[in-house]
Each structure stands twice: as structure tokens, then as C-alpha cells.
């Protein structure tokens, strides 16, 4: 299993709504992520910059690779008003390189 990390950017003033929507994440989206080999998925917020830092354990591809599925496309559309997105509503996502790991 690999661990990957990436960052995303919230629009100003959207922190509370982003957290609210994730507190009510759709069960079918969680099932898709889990069934696709994604586990221990965490998103951290750097409040002063509105930057999000995501990390997930993956047995296959990352959550970003699930964009062809209907449920992910609906989630992206649902979240598009809160964050920087691409033309297809996918979050602008910048992969992060691991530079240290204490095991």
C-alpha cells in the first residue's frame, strides 16, 4: 500500500462550508473510495492560507483517478463553488513529494 499526499486550495470564506459538507459526506462516495482501495484518507486545513493538505493510503490509484465515475463527478460539482477547480470541476490538485517518514 502506498501513501500519497496532495494539496488543494479553498476560496476565501469557504472553510466552514467545506467542513460542513465533509461532515455529511455521501455514504456512496465513501463506499466507492473504500472499494477502490483508498483508506486512511485525511484532509488538513491551513487556516491562514486556505490551503488543504490531503493524505491517503492507496492500494490502487488515488481518489483523483476516480473522476470518470458518476458519483465523483457529482461530488466535484457539489464542491466546485468552494475551491479552485479545473474545467471539469475536479479540484486543482498538486501532488506532494514525501521528504521524510518516521516509521
TrEMBL record:
GO terms for cellular component: cytoplasm. Coiled coil: none annotated. SUPFAM superfamilies: Dimeric alpha+beta barrel (SSF54909). It holds the Pfam family rhaM. It is an enzyme of class 5 (isomerase). Keywords: Carbohydrate metabolism, Cytoplasm, Isomerase, Rhamnose metabolism. The keyword ATP-binding does not apply. InterPro entries: Dimeric_a/b-barrel (IPR011008), L-rhamnose_mutarotase (IPR013448), Rham/fucose_mutarotase (IPR008000). Its EC number is 5.1.3.32. GO terms for biological process: rhamnose catabolic process. One of its GO terms (molecular function) is L-rhamnose mutarotase activity. PANTHER family: L-RHAMNOSE MUTAROTASE (PTHR34389). This is L-rhamnose mutarotase.
